[in-house]
């Protein structure tokens, strides 16, 4: 039995889960998420919890059991608490500005980079060197944060670039001065 798959998913107040065929719609106070469930998985929706079961112990079903439970749990957590990733910008002249809903980045290129948020994702810029990406869909929040980081990943010599808040950058020593004796 899957250690993750056998755990029930608790439903807090204000969360409504409906199923139409292979689609599961989760609605809560922060928004709604829709996901597709593999047809082999058995999803039982109760008033207080959701239980995911598998029909047999075939290799495919064992792999899908824990995955399905985790995806449904992420959808439930997303509509109740939400997900967020914080990015730090380091470098002289590097900054972020929120213009409407779009994020405008100045990262040392000859042009500004504009990023439009997809549905269920919001940007917040508490300071010009900090970006908070938040939303109800865990995968989308992580993907957008990774795209922003990919515009100018941190370099190892001075640490300039865009990095995650908790990310540690391994620094390298620069060229060593040649001494003559």
Describe it.
This protein is α+β, with helices and mostly antiparallel strands and 181 residues long. It has 2 domains: 9-80, Ribosomal protein L6 (Outer Surface Protein A, domain 3), CATH 3.90.930; 83-164, Outer Surface Protein A, domain 3, CATH 3.90.930. 20% of the residues lie in helices and 36% in strands. It has 2 helices and 13 strands. The strands form 4 sheets. It has a 4-stranded antiparallel beta sheet, covered by helices on one side. Strands 1-6-5 form a 3-stranded antiparallel beta sheet. Strands 2-3-4 form a 3-stranded antiparallel beta sheet, covered by helices on one side. The radius of gyration is 22 Å and the shape is elongated. The mean pLDDT is 92.
Mean pLDDT: 92
Q: Which class do the helix and strand fractions yield?
A: alpha+beta
Poorly predicted runs of 5 or more residues: none
What is the CATH third-level topology name of the largest domain? Outer Surface Protein A, domain 3
For the biggest β-sheet, the strand order reads 11-12-7-13
Pattern of helices and strands: EEEEEEHEEEEEEHE
Helix content: 10-25%
Number of domains: 2
Short description:
The chain is of the alpha+beta class and 181 residues long. The chain has helices spanning 59-80, 138-151; strands at 9-10, 16-20, 23-28, 31-36, 42-45, 49-53, 83-90, 95-99, 102-106, 113-115, 121-127, 130-135, 161-164. It folds into 2 domains: 9-80, Outer Surface Protein A, domain 3 (Alpha-Beta Complex); 83-164, Ribosomal protein L6 (Outer Surface Protein A, domain 3, Alpha-Beta Complex).
């Amino acid at each position: 039995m899957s250690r993750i798959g056998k755990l029930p998913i608790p439903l807090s107040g204000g969360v409504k889960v409906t199923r139409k065929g292979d689609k599961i719609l989760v609605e809560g106070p922060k928004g709604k998420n829709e996901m597709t469930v593999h047809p082999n998985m058995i999803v039982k929706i109760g008033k207080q919890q959701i239980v995911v079961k598998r029909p047999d112990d075939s290799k495919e079903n064992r792999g899908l059991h824990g995955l399905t439970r985790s995806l449904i749990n992420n959808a439930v957590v997303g509509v109740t608490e939400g997900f967020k990733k914080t990015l730090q910008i380091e470098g002289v002249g590097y900054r972020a500005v929120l213009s409407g809903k779009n994020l405008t980045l100045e990262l040392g290129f000859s042009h500004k980079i504009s990023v439009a948020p997809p549905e269920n994702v919001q940007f917040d810029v508490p300071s010009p060197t900090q970006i908070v990406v938040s939303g109800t869909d865990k995968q989308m929040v992580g993907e957008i944060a990774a795209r922003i980081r990919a515009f100018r990943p941190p370099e190892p010599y001075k640490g300039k670039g865009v990095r995650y808040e908790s990310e540690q950058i391994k620094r390298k020593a620069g060229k060593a001065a040649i001494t003559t004796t």
